[in-house]
Write a structure and sequence with these properties.
Layout (H helix, E strand, L loop, with lengths): L2 E2 L8 E6 L8 E7 L5 E7 L9 H7 L3 H7 L1 E2 H12 L3 E4 L2 H15 L6 E4 L6 H16 L8 H19 L5 E2 L1
Parallel strand pairs: 4-5, 6-7
Antiparallel strand pairs: 1-8, 2-3, 3-4
Helix pairs in contact: 3-4, 5-6
């Protein structure tokens, strides 16, 4: 049976906020938006060895370290929840080069093997989508009242941008098997 490409579900998107930008940084918030639009978002309590804190990163995401220490979910619990939610699936990130190492750090430092895959969003974007990505994302962000640089909000914007660019660049009469 053939179905229009518009009926294909959106990709699962993951976004990570972190303590900083360098090798010593660690994940502090993870957000996932599933294909059906359901969201998962957790602040992550720093592991004992996770000490690096960059004020510039905090200025960007607005999350204070004290909030993580007092209200964050344990890194172990977050790793378990991500595995339960995403087992066997591929999630996509627009910041794969940094998000992937942060997820590896989360799973490695909690000694919980990652049971899902993370891939670069560029792997599923067409050239046409890439050409209009930034303009489309900016437009969606300008019309959003949600806070930026929070993981689940960013994941949602990325997923909506993916869908908008796909719908703008695919001939609606094009069918796939």
């Amino acid at each position: 049976m053939r179905k229009p490409i518009f009926n294909l579900p959106p990709p699962i998107i993951i976004d990570i906020e972190a303590s900083g930008f360098g090798a010593d940084s660690y994940p502090i918030e993870v957000g996932v938006i599933m294909q059906d639009g359901d969201r998962y978002c957790r602040l992550i309590k720093p592991q004992p060895g996770w000490q690096h804190w960059d004020e510039k990163a905090q200025a960007l995401h607005g999350i204070e370290r004290d909030l993580l220490v007092n209200k964050g979910t344990s890194a172990h619990q977050v790793a378990m929840e991500l595995n339960s939610l995403l087992a066997g699936k591929t999630v996509y990130s627009d910041g794969w080069v940094v998000d992937s190492p942060w997820l590896i750090k989360l799973h490695h430092d909690t000694q919980i093997a990652m049971q899902y895959r993370i891939s670069s969003l560029e792997m599923i974007l067409s050239e046409a989508q890439m050409q209009i990505w930034h303009h489309t994302r900016s437009s969606l962000q300008d019309n959003s009242t949600l806070p930026r640089h929070r993981a689940s909000t960013d994941a949602s914007i990325i997923q909506h941008t993916y869908m908008a660019t796909r719908n703008l660049t695919v001939d609606p009469t094009h069918l796939i098997t």
